Amino acid sequence: MRVERYVARDSRSAMAQVRAELGADALILANRRVAGQVEITAAIDVEHAVANAVPKRRSASEPERRPTPAASPTNEIQLKALENELERLRNILDKELGGRKWQETGKGPAQKSVLRQRLLRMGLSRTLAGELLDRLPRTERLDVAWRQIVTTLGDRLQISEAETIPGELTAVYGGTGVGKTSTIARLAGEDIQRIGSNRVGLVTLDSYRVGAQEQLASFADALGVPLFVADDRQSLSLALKKMQGRKIYIDTAGMSQHDARLRRQYELVRGFGKTVRHVLVLAASAQASQCRALAANFAPRALSGAIISKVDEAQSLGGVLDVVISARLPLLGFSDGQRIPEDLHYADGLELVRRAVQLADVDPAVPARQLRVAS
Ligand SMILES: Nc1nc2c(ncn2[C@@H]2O[C@H](COP(=O)(O)OP(=O)(O)OP(=O)(O)O)[C@@H](O)[C@H]2O)c(=O)[nH]1
Ligand SMILES: [Mg+2]
């Protein structure tokens, strides 16, 4: 390899020198300006240059070859290397740009699968996740698509403030230990503040467990309201008569979702008129399948609404939100702690969806800000 430096007043003159001395096969190694002039460093593979300059002796049968600079071995190798390098770069770019498209556009199966994974991680069922994705309007960007999905999820929650449901009688059902009695204490406490303790009364259908009655009795004492225990139509009728003119809350015994007595308590209360509010408490900390089975004990539209309890204990919230949405249960409120009444809140669908998103740690930055804007 022979390396030379050529200095001229401009590139054209310097290149002319390179070509004149080293020939068309010369490789340009560097090109820079030095003291107002152009300096070109060029090299030539001496062996190839000689091989090209002195044609090989041919056999009689071999046709005469006239090597041209473009077809010289050095140029061919360089060209091949260049092609390979370009191919490699093209592959890298394809991969990179393909990936970016996958991340940023709102279309295509890959994008849907990212969104589906997020929804499943939140605890939603495949059915609801599929429905949300099917209704997704076409959009170019993943973050926009995600925002639309969580907003739609919030909209799918039917919100109903407890007070907007008519009824002087409110019965609260649910699994064991989900927070039925606490919910009653909170709602009754609120009513007492509004209409006074002489307008509120309590009944418990939990005649099975002494402890349960004691718990409600101590709430009744603290609130200054009467409490009756009933276990059949007759005793319930008597209790309601004695508390006529009061807004009455009926506490029920916590039952497993498979226990037929859950439904029997509902049937007993239902017998007292159409204006009874039937409220199901679903614990967010319970399994979604458990909540689903509990809700399935009641015919469609049998319940006036649901309250989601133990939001603070939940690992994920999508499951219980899914149950509320698919059972078309109006959401009356949610609780996120043991304090009475501070930890019972009116239902706020977007807030619950925001918490569901946060718990799943899917994209905390998006909903917190955007959902507030959306609301
Ligand atoms: N962390 C948390 N605890 C709650 C919440 N709501 C109720 N609890 C607690 O859950 C426990 C059970 O609450 P209860 O109100 O007695 O539940 P219940 O459904 O009446 O229970 P049973 O009548 O035994 O079926 C109590 O220790 C409550 O303080 C909540 O939102 N968050
Ligand atoms: Mg109870």
From TrEMBL:
User: Pfam families, from UniProt?
Assistant: SRP54
From which organism does this entry originate? Congregibacter brevis
Record's bilayer topology term: Peripheral membrane protein
Its subcellular locations are: Cell membrane
Domain SRP54-type proteins GTP-binding residues, every copy: 167-358
Name this polypeptide is given: Flagellar biosynthesis protein FlhF
Q: Can the keyword Nucleotide-binding be found in this entry's annotation?
A: yes
Q: What is its main location?
A: membrane
Keywords in alphabetical order, please. Cell projection, Cilium, Flagellum, GTP-binding, Membrane, Nucleotide-binding
Database matches in InterPro entries: FlhF (IPR020006), P-loop_NTPase (IPR027417), SRP54_GTPase_dom (IPR000897)
Gene name tied to this protein: flhF
Q: Extract the ranges annotated as region (Disordered).
A: 54-76
Kindly list the residue ranges recorded as spanning the membrane.
Answer: none
